[in-house]
Design brief:
Blueprint: H1 2-6, H2 23-30, H3 32-41, H4 44-51, H5 60-71, H6 77-80
């Protein structure tokens, strides 16, 4: 999916979007609402399978940000995403 987001002709690059910068950050900002909804509705078993633990719905975004911060290079997702 990420390859599709950032390939030539990508749907993630809107006509009004600037080129360059952090494309991943812009794409994630665009789907923050969907990510919040998914965090409250995804079955706990999936978190156990992929994260190794069950996380309460109200803590899932915080946990995801913690994990994302550990993987990100040259930026800190928790300083940019879900700020509102």
């Amino acid at each position: 999916m990420l390859g599709d987001l950032f390939s030539a002709g990508s749907v993630a690059l809107r006509k009004d979007a600037k080129r360059g910068g952090n494309y991943l950050l812009r794409a994630l900002k665009d789907i923050e609402g969907e990510m919040r909804a998914a965090a409250t509705s995804i079955e706990p078993a999936l978190f156990k399978e992929y994260w190794g633990c069950v996380v309460a719905p109200e803590q899932r975004i915080c946990k995801w940000l913690m994990l994302a911060d550990g993987y990100a290079q040259n930026w800190i997702p928790s300083k940019e995403l879900f700020r509102g």
